[in-house]
Amino acid sequence: MFAIGDHIIYSTHGLCRINDICDETVSGVTKKYYKLHPLENTLVTISTPVGNDKVVMLKLLQKEQALEIIDVFKKPEVESQTPQNPKTQPNKIHSGDRMQIAGVINALMRKKFDTQIQKESFYAHDYKLLNNTQIILFKELAHAMDISFEDINKMINELVTEDLPQEVK
């Protein structure tokens, strides 16, 4: 169980702070609920039952874990070299496993740059999946590394584009 004041990753909202844990009655059933606020938008309040398995709530990464995840972007993953079923990507993302999430982001980033080289279109659903997932993971990595989002974004983009022609970078 998390405590009031903890910073966590919450599902699609990313970095959040737990502001309260209280009892709420919904449909005649009283349960404990977390009251969360996304760090980016304190006007939003999220209420979710304690012990809810349908959403991902994770402790924030430590620096050592962040470094391991950044290593994923140093090489083309097997996933990015073989055709993959796009239907499995959301499952990997919703699993909450940051290594799998980084693998999906790495594959999609490389696919995006490859489509630029080939002068092809990058599919809108791939772009949306990449953009949303990348923002949440990169913000968490930046927090763990105590650097800005812009710095982590630049660092990872450099790792992914290291072997690409100059005009794509």
Shape: elongated
Number of structurally distinct domains: 2
Query: Nearest-angstrom radius of gyration?
Result: 18 Å
> Helical proportion?
40-55%
Could you say which structural class the secondary elements and strand pairing correspond to? alpha+beta
Which spans of ≥5 residues are poorly predicted at pLDDT below 50? Answer: 79-83
Pattern of helices and strands: EEEEEHHHHHH
Text of the CATH class of the largest domain = Mainly Alpha
Q: What is the CATH architecture assignment of the largest domain?
A: Up-down Bundle
Distance between the termini: 43 Å
CATH names the topology of the largest domain as Methane Monooxygenase Hydroxylase, Chain G, domain 1
Q: Could you tell me the strand content as a percent range?
A: 15-25%
Can you identify the CATH superfamily of the largest domain? CarD-like, C-terminal domain
The overall strand count is 5
Mean pLDDT, nearest integer? 89
Main beta sheet strand tally, sense and closure: 5 strands, antiparallel
Number of helices: 6
Strand order of the largest sheet: 4-3-2-1-5
Protein name: CarD family transcriptional regulator
Domain CarD-like/TRCF RNAP-interacting: 1-109
Descriptive overview:
- This protein is of the alpha+beta class.
- The protein has 2 domains: 7-58, Thrombin, subunit H (Beta Barrel), CATH 2.40.10; 61-168, CarD-like, C-terminal domain (Methane Monooxygenase Hydroxylase, Chain G, domain 1, Up-down Bundle).
- 45% of the residues lie in helices and 20% in strands.
- It has helices spanning 63-72, 78-81, 88-94, 98-117, 124-145, 149-161, and strands at 7-10, 14-26, 29-38, 46-49, 57-59.
- The longest helix has 22 residues, at 124-145.
- The model is unreliable at 79-83 (pLDDT under 50).
